[in-house]
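The protein record quoted for completeness.
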Amino acid sequence: MKYYDIHMTVKDDCKEGYSVFVEASDENEAVQIMKENHLYEETEDLDNIDYIGEITEKEYKEAKGIK
């Protein structure tokens, strides 16, 4: 399994955004999991994904608050 940081910019202010952290087998599955589980603030944010980056398991657990 791999871990992903999906970052979206906020439509009203392209300088700010937020990340969603997902465990998946590849980038496409990560985006699908994010959509199916509504892990975004606004539907419009899905059009503003500016990057999908693979992260380590440690980074994923830290971001999710998992010990």
About this structure: The longest strand covers residues 13-24. Residues 2-64 form a domain with the Ubiquitin-like (UB roll) fold (CATH 3.10.20). Strands lie at 2-10, 13-24, 49-55. The two ends are 18 Å apart (CA to CA).
